[in-house]
Design a protein that fits this description.
The complex is a heterodimer of chains A (240) and B (317). With 240 residues, chain A is an alpha+beta fold. Chain A is built from 5 helices and 13 strands. Chain A folds into 2 domains: 82 residues, Gyrase A, domain 2; 148 residues, Cyclophilin, CATH 2.40.100.10. In chain A, the strands form 3 sheets. A 7-stranded mixed barrel of chain A has the order 5-12-9-10-7-6-13. A 4-stranded antiparallel sheet of chain A has the order 1-2-4-3, covered by helices on one side. A two-stranded antiparallel ribbon of chain A has the order 8-11. Chain B folds into 2 domains: 170 residues, no CATH class; 122 residues, Cyclophilin (Beta Barrel), CATH 2.40.100.10. In chain B, α1 runs parallel beside α4. The chains are: A alpha+beta (240), B alpha+beta (317).
Amino acid sequence: MGAVRMLVAGEQGLVVEFGNAIDPAVNARVHRLARALAARGLEGVLETVPTYRSLLVLFDPLVLTRERLASEVERLLAAPEAGEASGAGRNTVELPVLYGGEFGPDLDFVARHNGLSAEEVVAIHSSSAYLVYMLGFTPGFPYLGGMSSRLATPRLSSPRGKVPSGSVGIAGSQAGVYPLESPGGWRLIGRTPLRLFDMDAERPFLLAPGDVVRFRPVDEEEYWAYLQVEEIRAFERRGR
Amino acid sequence: MIVVLAPGFLTTVQDEGRRGYRAFGMPWAGAMDRFAFASANLLAGNPPGAAALEMTLSGGSFRFEEAVYVALCGAEMGAALEGAPAGNWVAFPVASGATLSFGPAALGCRTYLAVHGGIDVPVVLGSRSTYVRAGVGGVGGRALVVGDILRIGPAPAAGRLPPRRSLPGPLVPSCGGEARLRVLAGPQEEMFAPDGIDTFFSSAYTVTGRNDRMGYRLEGPAVRHKAGADILTDALAPGAVQVPGDGMPIVMMADCQTSGGYAKIGTVIGPDLRLLAQSRSGDTVHFLRCPEEEAVTALRGERAAYAVIKERFPGVG
């Protein structure tokens, strides 16, 4: 494990960098510090932003000096976190996915590219546990690690103008899910009926940094049933 | 109620921004020129972070269906109340049925129209700010269009506000023209060649047409990296100066995404970011290296200015 670096990101930003690689062990240290800072509840810490290998801590320097924040961070890094060994704080979210067809227009390409059948792609994709390294790109978009290298597929050479929300994609060795309809160049292999971002919901973001995601293949009937439930919920929220 | 007779080039509802959700990929949004925005609110008798209208380059035209007290701060857009010049960095009452109109800004880019009581749109994730890319906040998550009707929040100090008040000259900042932005180096300064860093801090850059609420792309002498421009995607916040492989700086603004993959040479200090928000295509930008102490002093100065304005112009803020 490399040395921790503290970098300046403006007068209100401290970057705590744990390494320079996409590595679950490095990422775990990022989330551990984010949790420790939240639990510490330091006055002057405004918000923290976890990424693959660093935590951006935004703070008010008129309330909390950089020196004081840095020494608090060092103290927290030195302290063992209670319950860490048992994997506490890790939330597993299962996403039902309808693979292939119009919902996963690139499933066959991903299969051909990797010398697999479509069924094998689905089986491999839905058998891994994926780590939410970070969220970004659009609100609620998870950068997922842990995909089998047997599914790695390059992005589209020309991105689609509109990728439907819920689309489950592959870009190189990364996996992701589009929470919003947006342009995008990832290979789409399926779609989840669950809403990853719903601004009216009590919990607007389905996934949090550090969560574990599992994909479960569903048939069309189950997909539409889930979608119906999501729509009824959204309707009820709007009616409140 | 306010009826939008003409929206102007790009007018959105903004407040202090949607804080606390960057970890989920949700940008802050919020006012681009935070000093003009807070000043408008304080002059209007509001708390400094109340929701107001942010107009861009060319302002709109608004009819008030009730008597209100408004304030205007930012770029000079030739505001006129029922056809008569209304001034700028001022607050005044508007009679029910009156129309307040703005034209194009000759200099500068953004003007705030604050109304006593604030613009009453639904609060989404703690904020009324519009973030157009995700369709969140403001009026339907979008810029105003003709015919929109805006509600005004409760106006507790309505009867106690004076006929007209304006920000004292010494407190009125510049809007537009050449911008000199102080920058704290880092977090990836080490990825730049020494002559690249010199180039960045000694050259004049020009604002390109690719400037919006997400970021300002600049053009000028290329800032050279040591080896490459790409980093492992990490966090971004407004003020960060990303430099992609072509060496042309991009300054991240209020709507910027929460993560990015280009090396960041520095961060424009918070109090100076408004200067860039008031610049437009063709304007010149300089970056000045700034020690951290000076940045914190500038922030203290900005907060002190709000305290002075608040004291001189009592309201509910």
